[in-house]
User: Fold this.
Amino acid sequence: MQHNLLLSILVFFLAYSGCNDEKVSPPKQSYFQSILTDSTLNEWSGKSGYWTFEDGVLTGEITPNNILLENTFFIWNGEISENFELKAEFRISGKGNSGINYRSSLVEGKDFALKGYQADFNGSHEFTGNIYDEKGRGTLAKRGQIVYVPSTNSATNIVRTGTGEALFSKIDTTKNGWNEYHIIANGNTVIHLVNGHIMSTLIDESDSRIIGKKLGLQLHLGPPMKVEFRNIQLKKL
Assistant:
């Protein structure tokens, strides 16, 4: 039964994402809104000395003289609805590690720290497309996987189907390549697309899941690196 459920959900979202020729018109009042611009920059906050915004591009950078000891986030001070779509273009240096946190919560006692769902990516693109749980359960769905997590979950009853190394070819790995993340969060289902292609799907009914209202862009601790974001757009569902 679980296997049939996963197949049904995959078929539905393949159709939704435009993998067939038939297009479904969105509701007239449904639209994407840019949330990081010159005029809305004051709605965001991040750790001083690590973030800059110029010509519509947000840059997070770690340098040899400015090492980061723990993950930090550039956080939107607004609140995302539980059900939404988010699009954002990203670019990252070869040794970089980053992600887009959503449905997240602030970490008590720490500045600019989040816990919750993350659209993962890194410079080698080993993790790009994965669904990750920051400061929680770790990687939930890898690229190419559909994962079902029941309310009472254990390693024996979490259902994982699919492999997806062929999807690596859908990622622009060139030095100057920009990629687009598209996140769909609706009810217990979360889907990550990169450049219009479904990368991972999660049906999460776990009692331990976090459903927060925070959105943030990650700068991961580690060696010197640079990550860039632009054209961040949000649509409520």
